[in-house]
Amino acid sequence: MLKNSEIIQFRKQFINIDKFINYQWGGYSSKPLSVLDEVCSWQKYEGMLPSSKEIHTAVQEMKTAFRKKLAAFTGCREGELALTDHTTNGINLIGWGIRLNPGDRIILTKHEHPANILPWYNLARRFACEVVFLDALHSDSMLLDQLETVLKSGHCKVLSVSHVSRQTGFRLPVRELSAAARSYGVFSLIDGAQSVGNIPVDVREIGCDAYALCGHKWMLGPQGTGALYVRRDAMKKLFPSLIGSKSQVSYDLQGSVEWKPDMDRYEYGTSAVTLFAGWLKAMQLIEELGWDRVFSTIAAKAHSFKQRLRETFGNIVVTPMDQEKSSGIITIRLNKGTGVEFSAYAWEHGSIQISSLEQPDQVRICSHFVNTEDEQEQFFALLHTYLQRS
Ligand SMILES: Cc1ncc(COP(=O)(O)O)c(C=O)c1O
User: Which domains are assigned to the chain?
Assistant: First the structure.
């Protein structure tokens, strides 16, 4: 675990971290100043002589360094990663890459973010497919049984589920889910928006075909950064979806084209590459503390938060207590007012940022390693006052 002195030191890197309490890391993170500076200096550099060979080479080297770092961090090869704008971009790249036919079934869970539902609704309408939702989300064995029943009934083409539920912070058994999908020849995509930087992620160990993630949440990177992993041998299961003038090795005007062999074929146009210099910086900063220590700190803080919530306010915690099944996300259900009302109250009366969830109505607290004991105290005092109000 990280020492308090290390956390206090790390907090100095954020501009206004003491002006409000951020429990919304699973929405948008605050960024260390050096991450923002890195983006600005790359923007200035790239913008000075954008077509010069020197700058082009430097940008390519930075991209290579970024890809290396992220590949090592997530347990894959560099060529298996495409740099994207966000998680949703990765989900769409897969959705449009899979060859869907009328009658095919797309399997999701009822806890998915709209970003992992709406692209599939769109595809289902376009190709006359069916979306099936799994809802046994409180027990691994029940969830796996439910998946098995759906897979057995046939016509399944793709399974797309979160690694960590944005709704409850529950860790889904993605390894077992991917293995079950594979045994029926079904493509498995994991939505890692709430997992990467929050819990350890090793895509090879999970064994999924693809994993979509972003930089702007738990990783402390800039908005507009994401990545898509596709296992080398799963790449051939995808028809190239979004493609452009940076996707090919060669082409001619007679209609032939050879795509790049790696996932960078999906970096198809001119993108905001400088943002990735910021994300790289963020990874380097966290790496200096040690990812293992960061993950154990997130887990321990969330655990003590949940325990205290239970002891003080009774049975309001929706997130599992088991550290192996949970993460830095803590979801609570209040029997007073709505989640929207409490989130607004927390901001107005305590400068505390939390988020409200719908269906069902809940409140989500995203506790990162940089959050302090004092911030926890302030949250408890605020919740206590809120619940006492008539
Ligand atoms: C589980 C999950 N998936 C996808 C998204 C969308 O992420 P992005 O904005 O990176 O596309 C979010 C955003 O909160 C999320 O929580």
Answer: 4-31+290-385 (3.90.1150.10), 37-285 (3.40.640.10)
